[in-house]
Specification:
It is a single chain. This protein has about 375 residues and is an alpha/beta fold. It has 2 domains: about 190 residues, Rossmann fold; about 170 residues, Rossmann fold. It is built from 13 helices and 13 strands. It starts with a strand and ends with a helix.
């Protein structure tokens, strides 16, 4: 059985998708039954992680719509399928998923599609309609399995996309051996260390883009500026960083710190009292898993992945229907919360380890052929 892991990751930043692909590279080993190939950039940020460069099949997949590039990649994947006698293409993210499914109409392989994030969610009405239509159309292509990371996502696929499509639920997993808090302590760390003596630190580790919705965190800080015992921290970078900075200047916010990207982000878990998520849409953020593993409770906006993951033992889902109400709901929760994270660490690690995730995918590969 020959499996091609197809992805479009082309960012040097560390994010959930990159960690997931690295898990496949590290743990999917050749054996008498299976041989693994990787469809990725020939000189991209993940290339050096593949020990056998002969297993890299070059693909440059653009995230945004690019008809010529997409057609080229579809034709190339068809040729690769026949040349290498690929049995399964496992496509991560929407664009590789589209390319793989269309190519499968003309090639002998089956497709496993892990969306990671659905393009139609969080979009304007026109874009949402277009992307939802495309997902529905592609879902009728035979010989495919869609992987959902939560039970709620599975229900969404059946209700919004195709009630007859084949869906498998496999939770994302992380490498628990590598997420011990960093020992690197910089100026921002020491500044927060002093603030923590008399304030509750609410931290967010996110990309600054529309999906992750960092502006809502700034609005929380604005609404709660008179509550001097709460301080917000956002660790991350992205397309909205200038908009975030301008909002902070315009509203003269002094109860929030925007640090930019930090490779030592894990050190800050020791300073957080809570980890905050305000995403417009989300599967299961790996930082949620990492936060609970580091004994930090979660406060989150009510998106799909949160419904499956966040229980009262590990945090709070903000249910209010406006930003202002959610801000004060957060404040009230912090004011009255007296409990620490309550989990069975061994069961938690087993459920959300990358080893468990990869083993379930390998079982899926075996069942697909």
């Amino acid at each position: 059985m020959k499996i091609l892991i197809l992805n479009r990751h082309n960012s040097d930043s560390v994010n959930g998708l990159k960690k997931i692909i690295l898990s496949f590279i590290d743990l999917c080993h050749d054996n008498e039954k299976s041989t693994f190939y990787y469809g990725m950039q020939s000189n991209g940020p993940l290339t050096s992680s593949v020990k056998n460069s002969d297993r890299i099949i070059p693909f440059t997949i653009k995230r945004n719509i690019n008809i010529l590039s997409d057609i080229y990649n579809i034709i190339r994947l068809i040729r690769v399928g026949y040349k290498y006698k690929i049995d399964i293409v496992h496509a991560h993210a929407a664009k590789p998923g589209m390319i793989a499914r269309v190519a499968s109409l003309f090639a002998p392989f089956k497709v496993i599609y892990t969306p990671n994030n659905w393009y139609f969610e969080g979009q304007s009405s026109i874009k949402k309609g277009i992307f939802l239509f495309l997902e529905r159309l592609l879902s009728y292509i035979p010989s495919q399995t869609i992987v959902a990371v939560t039970n709620s996502e599975e229900k969404m696929i059946y209700s919004k996309i195709n009630k007859n499509v084949n869906v498998k639920v496999i939770a994302d997993g992380i490498d628990f051996s590598t997420i011990k808090p960093s020992t690197k302590k910089d100026h921002d760390f020491h500044a927060l260390e002093n603030l923590k003596k008399h304030k509750k630190i609410i931290g967010s580790i996110i990309r600054l883009d529309k999906q992750k919705n960092p502006l809502e965190i700034l609005q929380y800080a604005n609404h709660l500026r008179k509550n001097s015992n709460i301080y917000f921290v956002i660790i991350g970078d992205g397309e909205l960083i200038e908009e975030c900075k301008n909002y902070m200047i315009k509203n003269n916010l002094d109860n929030i710190l925007l640090t930019g990207f930090k490779d030592n982000y894990s050190a800050f878990f020791n300073l957080f009292d809570y980890t905050l998520f305000t995403s417009n849409n989300e599967g299961l953020p790996l930082i949620m898993i990492e936060s609970v593993f580091n004994d930090r409770k979660i406060i989150t906006k009510n998106f799909r992945g949160a419904l499956d993951f966040v229980t009262q033992d590990i945090g709070k889902i903000l249910d209010s229907d406006s930003v202002k109400k959610r801000a004060f709901e957060l404040h009230d929760y912090i004011k009255n919360d007296i409990n620490s994270v309550q989990i069975d660490k061994n069961n938690f690690m087993n459920k959300f380890s990358r080893e468990t995730m990869i083993n379930r995918y390998i079982s899926l590969y075996n069942d697909t052929i």
